[in-house]
Each structure stands twice: as structure tokens, then as C-alpha cells.
Write a structure and sequence with these properties.
Blueprint: H1 7-10, H2 16-35, H3 49-59, H4 63-83, H5 98-113, H6 122-147, H7 156-191, H8 193-202
């Protein structure tokens, strides 16, 4: 009897490592274009970070991928502030709160990965995305308000107006870019059905 092989490897021409590397490369490219202001000085684009980490968690479960994408974002911020003249207003001790903020989205993506890819799973996946975005926003925006030192006397009452003002934009960006990623994945599923079948099998491992 032959030894069982990885389900992605079993599909002709498909290697799980190459597929995951392609996903990571695409997300890294998006981050380079949007976070570095390479495009945003030409056209305003909603922030892609939260959706990127959600998508990363869905397709790439390795913690090293999360760490690498976070390191890339940090490096872009350092270069943008130090060399490109971007304001350092948000670069404070509260920057560390981005670790749990992005981590929540990555974990949420990992959870949604376990759902069957069918229409019946959409409500739960959507609820997970919205809830994760809210918690992530509390970590990032709330962390900045509480720990950045930019606000002399932070209080919950003082933070609530900021939550009401900024969270809708954060949620819109998260939903929009995750929707774009889902649409692209549907196109890939149609063009490469063997990849889609193998990925579905790999989720059950």
C-alpha cells in the first residue's frame, strides 16, 4: 500500500507550499502598494490591513506567515516615517497593540477556514468577520487612545465618540476588501477546480 500524501500534493500540479507562498506574496504586494503610500497619494484607497490578515488566516495557517506579514508592515512604516516624510503621529508605544489587533483577524480567518465553502456558511463567516473587525478596532483604535500619550486623560466616555466615528469606516474597508478576496477566490475555484477540491480536503486535516 502506498503511503498517504498531502491532499494538496495529491492534486496534479498543485503544491501546498507554492500555493500558500503565492497567497502570501499577493498579500505582501497589496501591503507594499497601499501601506507605503505608493498608490494612496494618487487615489484614496480604504485600508487593506484587516482584510489581509483575515485572508492570510484563511489560506495560510502558519504563525510564521503572520509574523512575516507584520514585520513587513512594520518595516514599511519605519521607512515611510524615516525616509518618505510620513507623519509619525501614530508611531507611539501603542503601536504594539497592532499585534493583537491583527492577530484577531488572522485567528478569525483560521476559524472561517473550517467552514464548508457553500452559501449556508456565509452568515456565520460574515458574523465572524464583523465581530473580529470590532475587536480588532478596539485593540488598535482603543489602544492608541489609551496608550499613545496623545490624549492626556483617556476615558471610556471620551473614546466612545471616536468609536462611533471611525469604526464604520474600518468595518466598510474590512468587508469590502474581504469581499474582493472572496470574489478572486471564486474565480480561481472556477479556473482551477482541482485546486479548489484539494484545498477543501486540506481544511479537514
Amino acid at each position: 500500500m502506498s503511503r498517504p500524501t498531502d491532499t494538496l500534493s495529491a492534486a496534479p500540479g498543485i503544491r501546498p507550499e507554492r500555493f500558500q507562498l503565492a497567497v502570501f506574496g499577493a498579500l505582501a504586494g497589496v501591503m507594499l502598494l497601499t501601506r507605503s503610500h505608493a498608490l494612496t497619494h494618487v487615489v484614496h484607497l480604504p485600508a487593506t490591513a484587516l482584510a489581509s490578515y483575515f485572508v492570510l488566516g484563511y489560506f495560510v495557517r502558519r504563525a510564521s506567515a503572520f509574523a512575516a506579514l507584520f514585520a513587513l508592515g512594520w518595516g514599511i512604516d519605519v521607512v515611510s516615517i524615516g525616509m518618505l516624510g510620513v507623519s509619525d503621529f501614530c508611531y507611539t508605544p501603542a503601536y504594539l497593540m497592532l499585534v493583537p489587533a491583527y492577530g484577531v483577524m488572522w485567528v478569525a480567518g483560521r476559524q472561517v477556514r473550517m467552514l464548508p465553502e457553500r452559501a449556508a456558511s456565509i452568515p456565520l463567516a460574515l458574523f465572524t468577520l464583523v465581530a473580529a473587525t470590532f475587536v480588532s478596532h478596539l485593540c488598535s483604535s482603543g489602544g492608541f487612545y489609551a496608550f499613545s500619550g496623545r490624549f492626556p486623560e483617556p476615558t471610556i466616555a471620551g473614546f466612545l465618540p471616536r468609536l462611533a466615528r471611525y469604526f464604520p469606516m474600518t468595518l466598510t474597508s474590512s468587508l469590502m476588501w474581504t469581499g474582493v478576496a472572496a470574489a478572486l477566490w471564486m474565480l480561481v475555484r472556477t479556473a482551477r477546480p482541482a485546486l479548489a477540491r484539494a484545498f477543501a480536503q486540506s481544511k479537514a486535516r
